Amino acid sequence: MDLITVENLYKSFGALEVLKDINLSIKKGSIFGLVGHSGAGKSTLLRTFNGLESINRGSVNIDGLEVSKLNVKDLRALRQRIGMIFQHFSLLQRKNVWENIVLPLQCANIKIDSKQIKNLLELVGLEDKAGYYPNALSGGQKQRVAIARALAMQPMLLLSDEATSALDPNITGAILELLKNINKELGVTIVLVTHEMEVVKTLCQEAAFMENGEVLKSGTIEDLFLSPDPKMREFLGENEILPQSGLNIRIYFPKNIAQNLIITQMARNLQMDFGIVWGTLESFNGVALGVLVINIQEDKKEEVCNYLNAQGATWEIIQGGQK
Ligand SMILES: Nc1ncnc2c1ncn2[C@@H]1O[C@H](COP(=O)(O)OP(=O)(O)O)[C@@H](O)[C@H]1O
Ligand SMILES: [Mg+2]
Questions:
Q1: How far is the CA of 19 from the centre of ligand 2 (A)?
Q2: DSSP-based three-state secondary structure for 106
Q3: Per-residue pLDDT tens for 157-168?
Q4: Residue 97 pLDDT > 90
Q5: Ligand 1 pocket: which of 9, 10, 18, 19 to mutate (most atoms <8 Å of CB)?
Q6: Closest Cα partner for 191 from 215, 214, 160?
């Protein structure tokens, strides 16, 4: 079931159109990534989900509610069910950890249940830091406080805008683990904006790749990586320099195919030599997937293609020199 549905969404800032015909659906309970270069429109799109950004055309529907049609009171109620975290934590410096976390509850006039706050502190691993002030905490700890604060209202949805971009890589890993854990333990749907593919690969089941205000491709992580759009390939840094002679074939290996076997058996069965031009095996959300580019002689094309088809591999012929 979808928690978020975006249809034909357009958004401009003055004459600048920053979101163009966005269509997305995000499943309840999933972790969804919005990824792309800076300026692609990711943050703007994310902010339409809780009505922080108005829209010009189209529809943003959250849990059955049309965000742009809500009155002030209903919008406030929706926002209370959506937590948000940012790159720069935005903690109040003059309040301690506990006070920062209970802030959303105070603003909403909700009675504070100290057991719940203690549980939250424990969940984010700060049970001994309740009385600390933000300037006594590390970056990773500050983000943990911000996460606990975002969860204080027991939201159905957590929006994360570059939450790990200001952190060291080793701290990033721990924060991503925490988000994964929160999604699993609390069932909170998470939508995260990032310009780092690693983040999407570690955490998300599905993602959308954005550029210039458009979603160029969206789907499961496997789909996204196994048949990337040329622009996404560039984003991934896979600038393959391919041989100009012969035929280059890119082979995609889904999780249930043993790629080594296909390749070594192909060489043996077809009794031919071929060059391995480029290959990668990566882990996506714990699942290993591979892409391999081989170079064969033109006249072997039919034989090789038939062989790959028979093995159930996905492949495409790519031009020499193409990125
Ligand atoms: N409040 C604003 N007023 C005018 N232009 C904006 C505003 N917010 C964002 N933009 C522009 O919209 C585009 C998309 O920005 P943003 O959504 O922040 O991209 P991303 O998060 O992918 O880096 C950029 O060109 C940015 O300069
Ligand atoms: Mg942004």
A1: 13
A2: helix
A3: 999 999 999 898
A4: yes
A5: 18
A6: 160
* Contact 18 CB / ligand 1 (< 6 Å): yes
Helix (H) or strand (E) run with residue 24 in it: strand 16-27
Give the pLDDT confidence of 182-214 residue by residue, as tens digits. Answer: 999 999 999 999 998 889 988 999 999 999 999
Q: How would DSSP label each residue in 283-321? A: EETTEEEEEEEEEE-GGGHHHHHHHHHHHT-EEEEE-TT
117-144: b or e for each residue (b if 16 or more CB lie within 10 Å)? Answer: beebbebbebeebbeebbeebebbbbbb
CA 138 – CA 134 distance, rounded (Å): 8
For 171, phi then psi, to 5°, come to: -75, -40
Among candidates 239, 231, 223, 228, which has minimal Cα distance to 284?
A: 223
Q: Is the pLDDT of residue 221 over 80?
A: yes
Nearest residue to 39 (alpha-carbon basis) of 240, 212, 225: 212
- Interacting residues of 141 by C-beta distance below 8 A, sequence separation 6+: 126, 129
pLDDT of residue 254: 66
